[in-house]
Amino acid sequence: MPQTAELISVIVPVYNVKDYLVQCVKSIINQTYKDIEILLIDDGSTDGSGKICDSLSNKFPIVKVIHKKNEGLGLTRNVGILNAKGKYVTFIDSDDYIAPSFIENLVLGLKKYNVDSIISGFKRIDSNNNIFYKEEYKMQVYEDDDVMDKVFTKMLGSLPEKHDSLKMSVWGNLYSMEIIKRYNLYFVSERKIISEDIIWNNDYFKKIRRVAILPFCDYYYRSNDNSLSLKYNPKRFQQVIYLYLILKQIIEEDHLPQNALLRTQKQFFVNIRSCISQLQNLFLKKHYQELLTIINDDTLQEVLSQYPIERLNTKQKIFLFLLKNRDAKLLFILNKSKLI
């Protein structure tokens, strides 16, 4: 542990995760870095998660619980920020977990490189804790204009021909509470803007001078088959359009590099693919009608007309070609067969 320990607040939003909550919290309790507080913010859970939070709090003094009405992830994190007493804060999703040295590595990086934030990689796991993907970053310190131009810009997405993005999520990163409180940085609701994390990261990284990206992957991110992102949401497509327009405005106002728009557009197409995948379990007529709505959208067609499709791999080219040519029938067949 670093000789001059700083209190780290670990904010854990909780909603209906009774099967994973204990594993998550115990992974935080078992950290090699001991100067921590754990804030479990129960967002109106209905599956008994709230009672598990209370039990953990009664057993472990560093665990504090706040129960609130259901408002979603972003506003739940805000309650954690308002109640955090640490000098720095990290966010952990309640169905994820962290390796024992996770927080110590963040703090060591913070001290060694004298930065305002730390970003680290992660491993994706399934419901049985099997690792099926690893995202590891190269060690690098950025300062001044490079914080936005080379770090935040990569959070927007990858370039057309390769995967070179940074995760846009806040989980697993370390942030300064002094900066958060000085500038009143709070999350918007994901019910208003999906990917609320990228909006918050934009607000935060505009205010800092130095950030370090560390090459360790001690955060285990769970991808569940029952995730809300896999279920049909009739508002999802318009939310994707709205997010793209908001990010386009941010790019213009913050004078980000030219490749920022390319990165945003590639992630936009990833989100469009997700919207189309959500249609797979709808009745045939509804599936086809919703698909027509998507491919005939003016914003989508405008982005398709600007994007260098020729720089993509073959599968991505085919998908965008079908979108651009409004080939609803073939898209419908491929989507129903789960081939896109």
UniProtKB/TrEMBL annotation:
Top-rank lineage group of the source organism: Bacteria
Keywords: Glycosyltransferase, Transferase
Keyword Transferase: yes
Residue intervals of the Glycosyltransferase 2-like domain: 9-135
Protein name, per record: Glycosyltransferase
Pfam families found in the cross-reference section: Glycos_transf_2 (PF00535)
CDD domains in the cross-refs: Glyco_tranf_GTA_type (cd00761)
GO molecular function, one term: glycosyltransferase activity
Keyword Transferase: yes
Organism: Limosilactobacillus reuteri
InterPro entries: Glyco_trans_2-like (IPR001173), Nucleotide-diphossugar_trans (IPR029044)
